[in-house]
């Protein structure tokens, strides 16, 4: 890169960073200003403009606010008060946003439940959030009803048409559309909790990450300056609103800038470009898997008719980045990095392919609360020197990314609802006695220009279909199936896909029948957590401390040409496993069979 190019890059980087910092100015965890106040100010400024486009209809900012006000007044009528929690079990819909916005007007925490969950996983999430009431989409309310016996505190179930629970629409029609008094939230500050957002973490059932108003206010602003959003923009958002990428980055930038969100219940590769063109989208929110799905589709007649000038998201792998930009003629993709529960945020302002962010040398002191440290893959722990402290990773060396926790500073680390789970994410005495750092669980590297690259996840969690899959949860479900003695779960790579597909190595006992396994797992796990491959091993391989060995299994994957064990797999959309043949293995490798 020539000198002029370097100067141009640095000027652009510092300008972008300055704009972002200006957006964050004044956000303080001790301040009384909440995200709710930000959105109400936006409503007052853009009342007659569309806030949502959904299923052919538009919703104005004013209509959205009135709907939220009815939710708030309904909550008060139910005797709910500031600090209580209400769970939302819903698909993408304008009412999903109106519900949590309305609850926040009176200081109530919204627990944003993954709408793929059912059974024990769903009950667990409802319980750890201590939900006093549950609002469910009509077609999801049956799942909640099915786990009522597992719930603590007998929370009332409401659905929008009263098919299963109490009729929420009917109840809202009796409530005032006037904005409730701010007195209902006057005692809250930025550090107080706005949302519970669920993450599988590294092990076990999902955990409830505590998202403060301060954290949300920052996240909601990221897209405004980085994407240069104005009220004229329309952001196409097909990602689930219960996750940070779709619900914070995608939705937040629109809500606080006066722009519109083009909302769809769920992603559809076949409808994507029609929607983008018909609704005149100017920006898009993505995850890497979404981009790969679109690339795997045949050319669409309208794939270049859109007006999308920028995309913001995460998980876009270098191998498809340039192809995606060129084929679909999207001017700029802004890759970001962050975790639901963490305090580290990185951003690739200039679109450097493969990078998730950048900390140039001249800004190291300013970003001193973000470090990459040497890491031991075998012990799965940072390496400490002779003085007992961690050691900074060298340039281009993979190490664990850490974020400093400073209770007296601007740190956004609120941890989980579970204190024990929170403590497991904290590393102490890292660079000096008494300090504390958030463990991201991610291996990253940094080059000499300051660009940071994601390398891999640490431990037992892998990512598939845009979701984190906890191997212990999957193994527990498998072990409940008749005939399975042990289950060792891990992720394997499939050509042409992002993340890792679930694979389980099982040992068997009498009574095992592969024919019923897929159906059984669908009743106990969300779709993305169901293993794609099942391998039958005569005997489980364990370490000296009786931990399952996974490294060799991951390397072997599902290569039936090298493995004598029987392997079964399940195709996308199929309801039963079938034995994997050499021919099918080749079809998976050449992408004739896709997942």
Automatic annotation (TrEMBL):
Domain of life: Bacteria
PROSITE patterns in UniProt: AMP_BINDING
Membrane-protein topology: Multi-pass membrane protein
Keywords attached to this entry: ATP-binding, Cell membrane, Ligase, Lipid transport, Membrane, Nucleotide-binding, Peroxisome, Transmembrane, Transmembrane helix, Transport
Biological processes annotated in GO: long-chain fatty acid import into cell
GO cellular component annotations of the record: plasma membrane
Domain AMP-binding enzyme C-terminal: 473-547
Major place of residence: membrane
MF annotations from Gene Ontology: ATP binding; long-chain fatty acid transmembrane transporter activity; long-chain fatty acid-CoA ligase activity
Database matches in NCBIfam families: PRK08279.1
Family: Belongs to the ATP-dependent AMP-binding enzyme family.
Stated name of the protein: Fatty-acyl-CoA synthase
Annotated organism of origin: Parasphingorhabdus marina DSM 22363
Biological classification of the source: Bacteria, Pseudomonadati, Pseudomonadota, Alphaproteobacteria, Sphingomonadales
């Amino acid at each position: 890169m020539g000198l002029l190019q370097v100067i141009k890059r640095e000027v652009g980087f510092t300008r972008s960073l300055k704009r972002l910092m200006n957006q964050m100015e004044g956000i303080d965890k001790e301040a009384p200003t909440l995200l709710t106040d930000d959105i109400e100010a936006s409503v007052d400024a853009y009342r007659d403009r569309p806030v949502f486009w959904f299923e052919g209809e538009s919703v104005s900012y004013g209509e959205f606010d009135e709907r939220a006000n009815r939710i708030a007044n309904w909550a008060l009528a139910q005797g709910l008060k500031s600090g209580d929690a209400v769970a939302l079990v819903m698909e993408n819909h304008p009412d999903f946003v109106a519900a949590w916005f309305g609850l926040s007007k009176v200081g109530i925490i919204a627990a944003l439940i993954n709408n793929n969950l059912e059974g024990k996983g769903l009950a667990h999430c409802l319980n750890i959030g201590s939900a006093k009431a549950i609002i469910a989409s009509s077609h999801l309310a049956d799942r909640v009803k099915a786990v009522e016996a597992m719930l603590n505190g007998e929370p009332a179930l409401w659905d929008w048409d009263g098919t299963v629970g109490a009729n929420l629409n009917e109840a809202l029609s009796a409530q005032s559309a006037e904005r409730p008094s701010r007195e209902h939230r006057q005692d809250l500050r930025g550090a107080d909790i706005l949302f519970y957002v669920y993450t599988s973490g590294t092990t076990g059932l999902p955990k409830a990450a505590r998202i403060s108003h301060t954290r949300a206010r920052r996240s909601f602003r990221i897209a405004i300056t980085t994407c240069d959003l104005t009220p004229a923009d329309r952001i196409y958002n097909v990602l689930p609103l219960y996750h940070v990428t779709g619900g914070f980055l995608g939705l937040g930038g629109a809500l606080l800038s006066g722009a519109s969100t083009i909302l769809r219940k769920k992603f559809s590769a076949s409808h994507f470009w029609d929607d983008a063109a018909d609704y005149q989208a100017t920006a898009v929110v993505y995850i890497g898997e979404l981009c790969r799905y679109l690339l795997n589709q045949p050319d669409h007649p309208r794939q270049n008719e859109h007006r999308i000038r920028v995309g913001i998201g995460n998980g876009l792998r270098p191998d498809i980045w340039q192809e995606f930009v060129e084929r679909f003629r999207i001017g700029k993709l802004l890759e970001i990095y962050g975790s639901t529960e963490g305090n580290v945020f990185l951003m690739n302002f200039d679109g450097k392919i493969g990078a998730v962010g950048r900390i140039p040398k001249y800004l190291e002191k300013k970003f001193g609360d973000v470090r990459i440290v040497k890491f031991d893959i075998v012990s799965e722990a940072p390496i400490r020197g002779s003085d007992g402290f961690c050691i900074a990773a060298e340039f281009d060396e993979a190490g664990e990314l850490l974020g400093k926790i400073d209770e007296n500073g601007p740190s956004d680390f609120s941890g989980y609802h579970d204190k024990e789970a929170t403590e497991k994410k904290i590393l102490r005495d890292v660079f000096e006695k008494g300090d504390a750092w958030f463990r991201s669980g991610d291996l990253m590297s940094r080059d000499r220009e300051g660009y940071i690259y994601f390398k891999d996840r640490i431990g037992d969690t892998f990512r598939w279909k845009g979701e984190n899959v906890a191997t212990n949860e999957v193994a527990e479900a498998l072990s409940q199936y008749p005939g399975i003695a042990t289950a060792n779960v891990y992720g394997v790579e499939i050509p042409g896909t992002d993340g890792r597909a679930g694979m389980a190595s099982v040992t068997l006992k009498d009574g095992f029948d592969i024919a019923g396994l897929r159906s059984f797992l669908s009743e106990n796990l969300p779709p993305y957590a169901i293993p794609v491959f099942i391998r039958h091993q005569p005997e489980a391989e364990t370490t000296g401390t009786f931990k399952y060995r996974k490294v060799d299994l991951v390397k072997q994957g599902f290569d039936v040409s090298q493995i004598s064990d029987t392997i079964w797999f399940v195709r996308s959309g199929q309801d039963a496993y079938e034995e994997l043949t050499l021919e099918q293995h080749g079809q998976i490798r050449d992408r004739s069979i896709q997942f």
